[in-house]
Amino acid sequence: MKKLDSSQIRAMYLEFFKQHGHTIEPSASLVPKDDPSLLWINSGVATMKKYFDGSVVPKNHRLTSSQKSIRTNDIENVGKTARHHTLFEMLGNFSVGDYFKKEAITWAFELLTSPEWFGWDKEKLYMTVYPEDTDAKKFWQEAGVAADHLIDMDDNFWDIGQGPSGPDTEIFYDRGEKYDNLAPDDPENYPGGENERYLEVWNIVFSQFNHKPDDTYEPLPRKNIDTGMGLERVVSIFEDAPTNFETDLFMPIIEKTQSLSDGKKYGENAQDDIDFKIIADHARAITFAIGDGALPSNVGRGYVIRRLIRRAIVSGHRLGIKDDFLYQLVPVVGEIMKSYYPEVLEQKDYLQKVIHSEEKRFNETLSDGLQLLGELMDNLKKTNQKTVEGKDAFKLYDTYGFPLEMTKEYLEDAGFSVDETGFKAEMQKQKERARNARGNDKSMGVQRDLLIDIKTPSEYVGYSQLEVDDAKLLDIIVDEKLVDQAGAGEAEVIFDKTPFYAEMGGQVADQGTIVDEDGNLCAKVTDVQHAPNGQNLHTVEVITSLSKDHQYKLSVDRKFHALVEHNHTATHLLDQSLRNVLGDHTQQAGSLVEPNYLRFDFTHFGSVTKEDLQKVEDLVNEEIFKAEPVTTVETDQETGKKMGAIALFDSKYGDKVRVVSAGDYSVEFCGGNHVSNTSQIGLFKIVSESGVGAGVRRIEAVTSKAAFDYLNNEEALLKQVADQVKTIQVKEVPNKVAQLQEQIKDLQQKQDKLESKIASQQANSVFDDVKEVNGNKIITGVLNVSGMDQLRQLADTWRSKNLSDVLVLGTQSGEKANLIVAVSDEKVKDGMKAGDIIKSISKEINGGGGGRPNMAQAGGSKPEGLPKAMEAAVTWLENF
């Protein structure tokens, strides 16, 4: 066996397919772009969907990649099995309607067995095939695989519902007898069975059918190849590692964790090994996920990151690591992956900051949460029960930050379970936001063959002209059919040249008109999109008629276009200003450039202060007022990068790129339309800033006349306020408002004093009415005070005067009811708890509450139940 490390294996795989005509696709962001069906990029093919469904035709129909991926459907198994991971790399080669079974199989065998490449012993390789796929069997044998190394498997058919499907073939490596974990005659001891000896390393899918809604299968017009080879598994074979974790992809992380632990060593204790593996796996996943723009939160991707961080921290505690440690593993991950993912080390400081902040937040509550969990299990043991109540599991989640899954894992390890139904009921009561941000699942679409077949060339000339007098109409599509003429109604058309911009990069499509040679309005352009082969596909509302091969005058709505240009250039200035103020870690996460406003989404850890937002706005306007020239250069990617151009992390650029520069301030790759000088933008004004997801902020802004109108409206509102507060000049409004606030504050203090006096008078009569119940003295009363603050003050007075053992007071505040219960310190020592009393009596006011043993409070929606709550308190004391 050759001695290759993980970096060499990855590079060799990609180089092999490059030599066989494939284009190497870079590893895309883990955060899916324009795919609501995915929470994460979870495979190599997930980034190729646009090619396989025909929405985009690739320049090269042969593609290969090493794609980082995340799967989170079985997090609880990570660390407990040999090969479960949250983050993994999938090596793959893909054919989009180009080569098929023979080439895919022949090349796979060559890569695995050729001495020039992997050089594996072919006798150690076994292939499973779909029983009816005789072609696959034939091609494997032609490649050099013995018949007794081919195994029929009924499960070898890839099908995820409606859409592309087909048979697949899987490749297994025989690791030898030393990995036998089953008896020789065990029915699972074969390639494809559940065993440790035969390791699946590669799956090749032959996508050749369309699974139709009626559950029938028809041949696809273009057959595709989709393969997946797990890098971690392949490395384990080259390094003869028992599991994926004893490889160069994980061991440096485990060794660093060992050095931070309380003398724990990997390989000495089974439970410790699980914790080492959990930490190593999760450290990789959170490092890459945060690096790609996701941030810890309580929903969607952020919830997954938070769960992984907390699960790793708990494992660290079990290894005796009491201090924050997870952030220290980021540089280790970066060193392991730097050959293919240098950005990890480049973002090291930012990644550590985010993870360390989350660690500190969780560690503050972890000990208390674990103590509560221990008490819950002790109580269950005393009563011979095995299930923790849902409300207790919810408290661990809501108060101490324990995800339900983590609580379940902890309980299962000790032989307990949790009432998940009860937990969900508590979640509903608290109206917690849903944790899962997944959109509706959908299968991969089938190619729109009509558009794929249209390859007539079309030129976009809108960078230099907004009118074309002699555009020839090449193609007309009506009701998914090519026609020679379109009458009144909707149609899709392609011209040999067009000034209409096709929607891309956040910039909306141009609108305008189509006029015939006689000056008659024939159609209105309502939308423009890119066809799969790159042409600008116009959606039009036909007024009279359009005919193929005729010439037309195409005119873009100049006012609409100019306003879009203003806003688009403003987003470039905004992007750079955000980096200058907040830091280089900010990345564009999406944008929308309309004529009347712009929207810009960006990644950022934490909120943006008003001061920083003002700095950003000032910087943008400063560049506008400088009247800097906006220039565009068409060049290649490498030259563009040397010019300092910023590229979006999820964008794909062609061989030729446009680099747009606003003076020396902003330099970006961009195919959109822009002003020729920043002064044309006129004015920039931020309208709002908010959070729109885990670690994603959104700025909405206006420019030009819209900004002027916005400020005019703001001034009109300020003048209205000036009239209301009776000032002559607008500039006097702040001082006048401050004076009014002082007056309100003074009146509020006087009101508070008056209410306190009234409350004291009421309390005197209530405090005099002491009842003795079951050997305990209690005072109860429903008072007419302003709210809970007044009740707390009275409780403090009661305690200072030692008037009774128990105090129960209530009041109505609007349509709400408030209750407070106080218990003397002596009675607390006897086991009496204010929280127990409040829980018992708060149901009378349709409420709930809690607190410390010596004081608790509750709120409810039924103030008329307050007298009954007082009676219930007496009843509770009778039964104490």
From TrEMBL:
Signal peptide, first to last residue: none
* Compartments it resides in: Cytoplasm
Task: Return the cofactor note field.
Answer: Binds 1 zinc ion per subunit.
- Reactions accelerated catalytically: tRNA(Ala) + L-alanine + ATP = L-alanyl-tRNA(Ala) + AMP + diphosphate
Question: Is Disulfide bond one of the keywords?
Answer: no
Q: Where does Zn(2+) bind?
A: 568, 572, 670, 674
| Domain Alanyl-transfer RNA synthetases family profile, first and last residues per copy | 4-713
> Coiled-coil annotation: which residues?
711-764
EC assignment: the record states 6.1.1.7
Q: Which GO terms describe its molecular function?
A: alanine-tRNA ligase activity; aminoacyl-tRNA deacylase activity; ATP binding; catalytic activity, acting on a protein; transferase activity; tRNA binding; zinc ion binding
GO biological process entries: alanyl-tRNA aminoacylation
Q: What is its main location?
A: cytoplasm
**Keywords carried by this UniProt record:** Aminoacyl-tRNA synthetase, ATP-binding, Coiled coil, Cytoplasm, Ligase, Metal-binding, Nucleotide-binding, Protein biosynthesis, RNA-binding, tRNA-binding, Zinc
Q: What is stated about domains?
A: Consists of three domains; the N-terminal catalytic domain, the editing domain and the C-terminal C-Ala domain. The editing domain removes incorrectly charged amino acids, while the C-Ala domain, along with tRNA(Ala), serves as a bridge to cooperatively bring together the editing and aminoacylation centers thus stimulating deacylation of misacylated tRNAs.
Protein name per Swiss-Prot or TrEMBL:
Alanine--tRNA ligase
**Gene name of the encoded protein:** alaS
